[in-house]
Design brief:
Elements: E1 2-11, E2 14-20, E3 23-24, E4 29-34, H1 40-48, E5 55-59, E6 66-68, H2 81-86, H3 90-103, H4 110-125, H5 131-141, H6 158-170, E7 176-180, H7 188-200, E8 204-208, H8 212-218, E9 221-226, E10 229-234, H9 237-272, H10 279-294, E11 320-329, E12 332-342, E13 347-351, H11 355-365, E14 373-378, E15 384-387, H12 392-395, H13 402-407, H14 415-424, H15 441-455, E16 459-463, H16 471-483, E17 487-491, H17 495-501, E18 504-509, E19 512-516, H18 520-525, H19 527-537
Parallel strand pairs: 4-8, 4-9, 6-7, 7-8, 13-17, 13-18, 15-16, 16-17
Antiparallel strand pairs: 1-2, 1-3, 1-5, 9-10, 11-12, 11-14, 18-19
Helix pairs in contact: 3-4, 9-10
Length: about 550
């Protein structure tokens, strides 16, 4: 069990959270959530001992072993992948290395023999004889091929490094497991494997993730950082979202009642303050008013942007027809002979293991690049709005403030109109005077969404729009895409968004297209789709 007493962390004179008193119980998985900057990763560092709080303390029984997902991908570059995993259990790793060194000696002294006997007992107690098999199972489950497991970490691509570090954290069944964004760089099937593994784990798990589908599948509780406090709710992310919305509404109702009561009290005081017979009552009500105004509703760190896509006109009968598109990057053909027709009301999620293929297709359809072969034709009533995966070209070197930046794309050049769209995307006051070139990744995405909202397209093309967004912004975008009444073509690694928005799945493969009118969860488990994919890829392939 982990318990905290009076934890407070202060950055720049402002507390991230204060007087935090919570308990985390073994056997439960807690999703740690909060707005960007609320202190999720900071709180994990406090729990792991990597950061000393300004006040309070963390209590962890000394007999419990804690493991965490390492964030430094270069820390183990001189180690093999298997050795890196073993280091997740420091006590066992130390025994393993000393044991190996003794066995490597050509001669043994009596003292060496006694030490080996001691080490063998400890090695067996720590399940050392099963260590290599366990590590290999973890690595294979997380998508690290067997032939890569003996290579140096420095030789592995970044995506595989992350998987090795995740295996390191889970190795040896730690009593407490801290995971910060564990699903990054994982494909759908690997995430499903991780969900199943964590759901069967008896350890105490605390996880930070922007993947709502993952949080729903693994979390028994949600630890919410808001109002500079941490509150724990029983249930998964969806349950928390409904409970928190109810709580916020109750707070709003309470605040409105207080405001209405304060208004009545002020009116009474103004009316009877000079009336001697009513002076005592006026004084009593003045004291009550002071109490009401002092007990203000705390400011939440959680803010939802207001995202609404409104087309300037409805789509006609003809939307898009694609015939035989082929595209290459350098000498590599990334898709060949792609053909499909888009119909009214389609919300199509483009999926597949190669993100370059999806991005390239969208660039061709929006005229940003040419196909090697094939044709496509948009209907005469169609206007598109495009959200590119990479947005650096829109911001780098741009010295405009946000008002002038967004005005470039506005149909109405009045500042009030432009500020209205910025306000919906959580830019107000001094924020609107920020230089476009200094924005964070999440701020850039919100600006790009504001730009897209102003274009009024009836076919929206969105390439990984949830990248860099917090859970609140992802939820708002998910709702906006679900409510959009025209045509969507999009790609996303957010499985919850894909599953709740898409009515049709298209997988771009090196040899054509798999086209299925179904939801994403059904696509993943379909035996027909699995057989078709294996025939195309020559075996199982990630999604």
């Amino acid at each position: 069990m982990i318990s905290t007493s009076g934890i407070m962390v202060n950055f720049g004179g402002q507390p991230l959270f204060e007087d935090v008193n919570v308990k985390f119980v073994p056997g439960n998985c807690y999703g740690l959530i909060g707005a960007n900057g609320a202190g999720k990763s900071t709180f994990l560092k406090v729990l792991s001992g990597d950061l000393e709080p300004n006040a309070g303390h963390v209590d962890i029984p000394p007999n419990l072993r804690m493991a965490k997902l390492e964030q430094d991908q270069f820390k183990y570059d001189e180690q093999t992948a298997l050795d890196t995993v073993f280091q997740g259990y420091p006590r066992l790793y130390k025994v393993m290395k000393e044991r190996e060194a003794l066995y490597a000696q050509s001669e043994f002294s009596e003292e060496d023999g006694n030490r080996i006997a001691t080490l063998e007992g400890e090695f067996a107690e720590l399940n050392g004889y099963e260590a290599e098999a366990e590590a290999a199972t973890l690595l294979s489950g997380l998508g690290v091929p067997e032939e890569e497991q003996h290579r140096l970490m420095g030789e592995l691509p970044g995506g595989l490094k992350v998987r090795v570090l995740l295996a390191q954290a889970m190795f040896g069944h730690p009593d407490i497991l801290l995971l910060d964004e564990p699903t990054n760089n994982l494909d759908v099937h690997t995430i499903a494997w991780l969900e199943d593994y964590l759901s069967r784990l008896e350890s105490l798990v605390i996880v930070v993730s922007h993947d709502r589908h993952f949080l729903n599948n693994v979390c028994t509780h949600v630890a919410d950082i808001d109002f500079r406090q941490i509150r724990i709710y029983v249930g998964n992310y969806d349950f928390w979202y409904q409970a928190s919305e109810l709580m916020l509404q109750q707070k709003r109702d309470q605040a409105k009642k207080s405001a209405d009561k304060a208004k009545d009290l002020k009116a009474f005081i103004q009316r009877f303050a000079s009336n001697a017979s009513k002076a005592k009552q006026a004084t009593s009500r003045r004291k009550l008013l002071e109490k009401l105004t002092m007990d203000e509703m705390p400011t939440s760190t959680r803010k939802y942007p207001h995202i609404v896509f409104k087309p300037n006109r409805e789509c006609g009968k003809s939307i898009l027809r694609v015939e035989g598109l082929t595209a290459s990057i350098g000498d590599e053909v990334i898709f060949r002979d792609v053909s499909f027709t888009v119909h009214r009301g389609d919300k199509i999620a483009f999926v597949g293991p190669d993100g370059r293929a999806k991005t390239t297709l969208f660039q061709i359809l929006t005229g940003e690049r040419q196909a090697d072969a094939g044709t496509f034709e948009w209907g005469s009533t169609i206007t598109t709005g495009y959200f590119p995966k990479e947005n650096e070209a829109y911001f780098e070197g741009v010295t405009l403030n946000l008002v002038d930046w967004l005005r470039q794309y506005a149909v109405d050049q009045h500042e009030e109109f432009v500020r209205g769209f910025l306000g919906r995307m959580l830019f107000s006051g001094e924020d609107t005077q920020k230089q476009a070139q200094v924005l964070s990744g999440g701020e850039r995405v919100r600006c790009m969404l504001a730009r897209m909202m102003q274009l009024g397209g009836n076919v929206l093309i969105l390439d990984e729009p949830t990248n860099h967004l917090d859970l609140e912004s992802i939820t708002a975008l998910n709702n906006a895409m679900t409510s959009f009444g025209e045509v969507l073509l999009f790609s996303s690694h957010d499985r919850e968004l894909v599953n709740t928005v898409a009515t049709r799945i298209m997988e771009i493969t090196p040899h054509g297209m798999i086209d299925a009118v179904m939801h994403y969860d059904d696509y993943i488990v379909s035996e027909t789709i699995r057989a078709e994919r294996e025939a195309i890829y020559g075996g199982p392939a990630p999604l």
